Amino acid sequence: MLGFILLPEDGLPGFTETVCRQPENFDLYQVNEFVSYLFQYGELNDSHVKLLSEQVQSLQLAKGDLFSTAGRVADTIGFIVSGVLRISYKKEAGEDVTRLFLSENQFALDIESFRTGTRSRVDFEALTECTLLTLSKNDYEMLLVSIPPLANLFSKIMTAALLKKMQLGRRMLEQDAQERYWAFMDEHPGLLNRVPLLHVASYLGITPSSLSRIRKGRI
């Protein structure tokens, strides 16, 4: 996963999305945020940036919309300009489990599904109104030819995301509930006020009542 990167295919029932093609007043600030993030992992020249900005599309999601859903093959890279997404999956008994929260300046893409063409096992739900920049797999593969440094750049981003996933998994095994809570607060300052506590408790692997006790300092 990325940025975690985890994502979609076409119309399953119940899948809601609103894709906005690049308008005449396309927000260059959004593109600049995207490019600035990419520059953390490598360099692109002016012609590369122009090509990239011509291919990305703006996507607006309302609270509760799904950016992608389980059962779909990931064919779109998403970069979050604003808002919060929740990555979740369902256990066999139907229990909804929160795996991760994604917010500004993070990618949303199921790397395994994107690379292998297998169906994703997770949902991406907008917990707030969201603005994303998206790049289809076809356009991404075209840009790999037009922008030679892009492959190495995205490889670094995906490697960083996978390392973060491994670190998260290890922390969930090694830390107790209170340690996981404080680690969450350190990693995601302010996020607790933007998302339902029910989902935070699920992410931490505890009950909502346990989360309430931790927040009140009774554990």
**Percent range of helical residues:** 40-55%
Biggest pleated-sheet summary: 5 strands, antiparallel
Please, how many domains? 2
- Identify the overall geometry: globular
Instruction: Please mark out the parts with pLDDT under 50 across 5 or more consecutive residues, or reply none.
Output: 1-25
The succession of helices and strands, N to C, reads EHHEEEEEEHEEHHHHH
Please state the structural category.
alpha+beta
CATH H-tier superfamily of the largest domain? Jelly Rolls
End-to-end distance, in Å? 32 Å
Summarize the structure.
The chain has 219 residues and is an alpha+beta fold. Helix content is 41%, strand content 20%.
